[in-house]
Write a structure and sequence with these properties.
Elements (H helix, E strand, L loop, with lengths): L1 E7 L3 E9 L5 E10 L6 E7 L5 E5 L4 H13 L14 E6 L10 E2 L2 H9 L8 H14 L5 E5 L9 H4 L6 H6 L8 H14 L8 E6 L5 E6 L2 E5 L22 H9 L3 H10 L2 H6 L5 H9 L3 H25 L4 E5 H6 L1 H8 L21 E2 L8 E4 L4 H15 L3
Parallel strand pairs: 1-6, 6-8, 9-12, 12-14
Antiparallel strand pairs: 1-2, 2-3, 3-4, 4-5, 7-8, 9-10, 10-11, 13-14
Length: 404
């Protein structure tokens, strides 16, 4: 089954085209990104397997135009891979927030779209863009079935005492204020792949997955089901991130608003887009930039990286306590897969759990690797994530069932 996987952001469309022969047998046909949507000049980057990368700078005023450029690239005679758009049998979308409506992926219909729209309040930076992407595909490929996979769905197994906040209960009843988590497709994928890689039975295991990137979250997974996760009502809660502050005393918000005479929208902008690595370092939201500056002695960059390390250690420790032990700790995501120094600093503080760290193996960069020694009580692994294949598998499963 030829499946187009779409990940729409507020100003970008990431995509992969896969030929899914089965869950574990598939070919990546093409991938790319249309970005800077809505700006004066946009950019399309497209790579078909076995062909050179194509980069085009051109106006991309909206997601409808962006989607047409993506589809045109896939069918281009010179650098495309499809003879016609009719070759696409299904489209799968990543959706950040599905609230309590979805504990699994779903076939797109008007009811599903309405529920995604309701959840825009929970993910105002993401869900509206996802809806634009779905509508754009409907416009260009009206008869092709579409499936949505939710970042929040995998976390729906959390017990109520883990996802409820100690606020007046009426706010949960009226507005569904609770913890939802995020990065669920990544946590699900690396937990399954990591358990197999480490020789564990996923359904008889205790695993902590650390998805570390510009947005970061950590999950506690017992016997294949999430029991807690670090992100909350929105992707703002948890550890320090690229531009997000993570956990803070809630009273800081009205305090700063009063002192600075800020509106709720202005404060939301500060918390989500001007804090984290960027706010604390006063330089960059990219950990690679801060690594370089820290190596040259910059104190604020060092502070950011130390805080990130501290937050990871603290989350792993609390989740190990919640699960009454841990069998496997997984590092994944852009930072988790590529920052060996961070992994080392975290694991050197986990000796009390029984982690024996393999310093030589830790040179691994963006490839699956066991980072603990053979005699380590707790296994540690670097597992590369692939959210797109999770979306493609779910899309194939749901679309195939339509023929049954």
């Amino acid at each position: 089954m030829i499946i187009l996987v779409i990940n729409c952001g507020s100003s970008s469309i990431k995509y992969q085209l896969l030929d899914m022969k089965s869950n574990d047998v598939y070919d990546l046909l093409a991938k790319g990104i249309a970005e800077k949507i809505g700006l004066e000049t946009g950019c399309l980057q497209h790579t078909s397997t076995g062909k050179e990368k194509v980069v085009r700078d051109l106006p991309i005023p909206d997601h409808k135009v962006g989607m047409k450029l993506v589809l045109d690239a896939l069918t281009d005679k010179e650098y495309g891979v499809l003879k016609s758009l009719e070759d696409i049998e299904a489209v799968g979308h990543r959706i950040v927030h599905g609230g309590e409506y979805f504990s699994d992926s779903a076939l797109v219909d008007e009811d599903v779209l309405k529920k995604i729209e309701i959840c825009c309040d929970f993910a105002p930076l993401h869900n509206p863009a996802h809806l634009l992407g779905i509508r754009a595909v409907q416009n260009v490929l009206p008869t092709v079935p579409q499936v949505v996979t939710f970042d929040t769905a995998y976390h729906q197994t959390m017990p109520s005492y883990a996802y409820m906040y100690a606020l007046p209960y009426k706010y949960y009843e009226k507005y569904r204020v609770r913890k939802y988590g995020a990065h669920g497709t990544s946590h699900q994928f690396v937990a399954q792949k990591g358990a197999k890689f480490a020789g564990l039975d996923l359904y008889n295991s205790k695993i902590i997955t650390c998805h570390l990137g510009n947005g970061s979250s950590i999950s506690a997974i017992v016997n294949g089901q999430v029991v807690d996760t670090s992100m909350g009502f929105t992707p703002l809660e948890g550890m320090i991130m690229g531009t997000r502050c993570g956990n803070i005393d809630a009273n800081i918000v009205p305090y700063i608003m009063k002192k600075e005479n800020l509106t709720p929208d202005e404060m939301t902008e500060i918390l989500n887009k001007k804090s984290g690595f960027l706010g604390l370092s006063e330089y960059s939201s990219d950990a690679r930039d801060l690594d370089e500056r820290a190596n040259n002695g910059d104190k604020k960059s060092k502070l950011v990286l130390k805080k990130l390390t501290f937050d990871i250690i603290k989350n792993i420790g609390s989740f190990a306590a919640v699960m009454n032990g841990v069998d496997l700790i997984v590092f994944t995501g852009g930072i988790g897969e590529h920052n060996s120094r961070l992994r080392r600093r975290v694991c050197e503080n986990l000796q009390y759990l029984g982690v024996n760290f393999d310093y030589e193996a830790n040179v691994a960069f963006g490839e699956d690797a066991m980072l603990s020694t053979s005699d380590s009580k707790v296994k540690v692994a670097l597992i590369t994530t692939d959210e797109e294949i999770v979306i493609a598998r779910d899309t194939m499963r749901i679309v195939s069932s339509l023929d049954d």
